[in-house]
Amino acid sequence: MRDRVEEGVRRKTEPEDASIASLGIVYERGYRRFLRVAEALVHDAELARDVVQDAFARAIRARFDHRSDGSLEGWVWRIVVNTAKNAVRDRAATTLPLHDLADEPHTNGAVPDAELSAVLAALPERQRLVLFLRYYADLDYCQIAEALEIQPGTVGATLNHAHKAVRHALEATRR
Amino acid sequence: MSDLDLLVMDALEDAVPYRREALPDWPDALARAGVQQGTHGHVRPAGDRPVQRRPVWLRRGALPLAAAALAAAVVAVATPAGSAVVRGIGDFSAWLRGVPGEPVGPAEQEAFERANRRVWSAFPDGPQLSTLIEREVEGRRFELQGFRSGGSLCLRLLARGLNGSPAVSCAPLQELQGATAPALVVLADHSLGLRNVVPVGQQYVAPEASATFGIVADGVTGVELVTDEGTRRAVVEANAFLSIDASPELGERVRAVFASARDGRRVEVPFVSAPFGSWDQPAPRDAKPTGPAKVERTVAGGRVGWLERREPRGVEPPADAPYMRGPMGGGLEFARLLAPDPQSHLRLLVGIGTLKRYGVPAGEQAVCYFLVAGGSSGGGCSPLDRLFPRAPFSFGQSLIGGGHQFETISGLASDEVARLEIFFATGERRPIPLADNAFIVQAARAKYPIRLVAYDAAGQIIGIETREGDAATYRGPRPVGAWRTVLTVEDEQGNAGRLRVARSSGGGRCYEYLLPGGAGGSGCDVKTSNRPKLGLGISQAAGSAWLAGDVVAEVAEVELHFADGATRRLRPTERFILAPVDWDGDRRLTEVVGFDAAGDAIARQRFRPPQLPGG
Which of A1, A2, A5, A103 is the best residue to mutate to test the B interface, defined by the most B CB atoms within 10 Å of its own CB? Predict the structure, then answer.
């Protein structure tokens, strides 16, 4: 997750035309965030890399379809998320619970709570996507709304539901 | 935010790592899309819409190169072959003979000379300015100029309409004569267009643009900069290179520089990244100092006779110059401006007097010296009888900015010193210009550790001083591994403050609190026997104030006392406290009391009301 310290920094207006150059800038700036969200969705670092590369290849090919009144980055996020979902489907595998990633090295020595990770993995897809885009991609509600083609108000509600669902599930499992 | 919410965030943080090492591969994405790339990286999409395209070299990651590709590239073995540099790539003869590029127009040359004459530390020899590279980026004009002055070559970047311009940075010509790489970075990540405001706390702001530039040997055709966000290619013209990042990310830095030749060979260029923020600062380099390690004759103390006798060496500094009066230098009774290296624009102002500052005891004579370099200067004072406490010379390290690749070392040597020499980690050694007991030398930061060696008139070594790092090197503890969020707290407006910790390289923990609007603070545990039980402070963030800090383990609870008599109790989380508080008006925080597990008050920290400037 990017540090919140970056929030409030005045940024230049993002290029909104879907030229290859503009897509290249979006790719370079957001590569690691795209990769992280993709990995959260497909649970495989190598596959996640492929997903991001394929998603941008799709974006390049479909660049004429981008509506200039929408955010280019939001449009690209939508393609990345859809490509990741397709990759999971194509692999014909069920979503692995997050604690199956325990083999991942944890540089701080912390092991994620398997119980909690399983709860997260069991969330409805939209709730998981909103969580991932909020925390891994550091997108704001409007960007998440664009990426998932939902209303900004729905993002807040979905995020709230996700938190509540996790809270309830944990309380239930710990009783 | 509840503990469960924090657990969710932590679980997410741990479940999928942020792969900082992953490098983008844009050419691969283009290839998957069926887009051809030109041999120089220009994209040639069939049927692409006509778009106004910025020059390739100016775009972030216009030619991203995967780390694997870089690693796989043939890395030429640098050979210290004098001006031959790396065999077959060429040398710096264009710079050693003169200045490449086109001379600027007479009006611009005249304006430069007028400005040069106005400063104390004027460039000698009336340097002739040349234009090396000119480009327009997003409506702004950037021009890289070069000139030679005495023993230095200097680059000057003009960015019309942006503060931070002109940016001037110089390198000693000797660097080219002994160069082991076919390029020389002179200035990296120079910020242009920073807002003219003082940031609050750690509220850093990204500049509008940043620039990295340097010079290249004759046979260099490309320079690639590996940054935190990818790889970009600089423009190379007139034996120089320039890279402008027109929209840098906050804290983005160049991490490595590679020069490539016509035959495809790629050589890594010695380079030190510019520091950023609390933690991103260069560590001491993993190299051993070279040169003599043993003093042959021990001398104690030392004097600068001419200064004590008030002999008029050098020139008299202007009476209204900084350090001669006012808060910086009031009390100097005698001062001279010295040019130990007449080939350099750098000067040393040396003075003596009875000072009431700089830690000099009242009534004692003190000697001060200040480096004067263009518009910058800095220095300090020592009591006269403690001017040379460890060696018969003393010096300071000066860095104009974190991205400058050459540090200035300036100081005074005692009358016992006949000559000085500097030794670099690379094994190179150079005499240090010394005149009237003053010396100034520029040292490449990529060649540290350095060692300064003093000799007496008989050639015996009488002093050795080693420096592991330059002025920007950070030797203290720093965070290791991933950060873990410990606390997230919202203020009344719903703005969140976050406190996170990481292991410290020095043992214990490092912490960082990030407050709304980018304010915050950071630090690492320091082992001390007398730390206070409550180590709390107030940080002002956007529209709110926060109590933040840590307490010792025996503090089980703290009570906040406010000016209106109200109190509020908080339990430390992992010994940390983070809470929004009132910091002005009738509900201002006045005191924090710490309680142990038995409920006994064991510590107290009072907070004074905020002082208005001048109040």
Answer: A5
